[in-house]
Amino acid sequence: MKKCILVVVCLTVLASGGFALDKTIGGGLMYNAGFTNWDWDLNNSPLGDTWEFEMSRNGFGLFAFFGVSQFFELNLGLLFKNPDTMKVTITYDDGTKESGSFSASDLGLDGAAALQLGIYFKIPIPISTALVFFPTVGTDLELTLDEDWWSDFWLRAGVGLDIFLSERMFLRGHAIYGIALPFGSDIFDDANTVFGHGLLIKFGIGWML
User: Contact 16/9 with Cβ under 8 angstroms?
Assistant: First the structure.
């Protein structure tokens, strides 16, 4: 009976946030692999009915996080985006397709910096006294600081892990995948559909306040 009571007490403490990260601050490095897709309908043009585009990019940057409670966290980041390959698929009137690829820099898209502003909801799940696992969902507003580029509004979800090195200092790993809604570029004015998706990985260090 005493063991059952002890288990109930422990679970109650965990649920109340006794082992949770209430207020935290930290930062580190991040890597982003992203893809942007859109298509144009050329209305029976001799060039083909539909053009479908996919541009891939990679990026590295710095981020900071601010845990305002055990469940909510604010993120700030500076990302350098490096365009990679542009893939094009043309669908002709008779249903045949033709595809090819070229460098995104041929469109005048060179590397660009972007500012990230985000808010995330997370559920800390203590695994041991040194490990805290957390599933997370949230949004990022990625504002590109180059007029030749577009910006993105991201919806993301993933998991993270905090590894405590001491009572207050911890290492953080974070992997999240998301869907993006691009905006702010004339290239999408006549597009039927526009969307993006990609992976964001973060590694950093944090402190409990």
Answer: no
Query: Helices then strands (H, E): number in the chain?
Result: 1, 10
What is the number of residues in the chain? 209
What the chain holds in terms of domains, given with CATH numbers, is: 22-208 (2.40.160)
2 strand-pairing partners: none
**Nearest in space to 53 (alpha carbons), one of 181, 191, 178:** 191
Q: Count the alpha carbons within 13 Å of 118 in the hemisphere toward its beta carbon.
A: 30
Per-residue pLDDT of the chain (209 residues; tens, 9 = 90+): 444 444 434 434 444 344 445 799 999 999 999 999 998 876 655 565 788 889 999 999 999 999 999 999 999 999 999 998 889 888 877 778 888 888 877 767 788 999 999 999 999 999 999 999 999 999 999 999 988 889 999 999 999 999 999 989 999 999 999 999 999 988 888 888 899 999 999 999 999 98
* CA-to-CA separations, 48 to 55, 133, 152, 196, in angstroms, rounded: 20, 50, 29, 24
Residue type at 5 in one-letter notation: I
Of 206, 96, 116, 111, residue with least CA distance to 156:
116
Residue type, 84: D
CA dist., res. 77 & res. 154, Å (int): 13
Q: Which residues contact 200 (CB under 8 A, 6 or more apart)?
A: 30, 31, 32, 140, 156, 158, 174, 175, 176, 177, 178
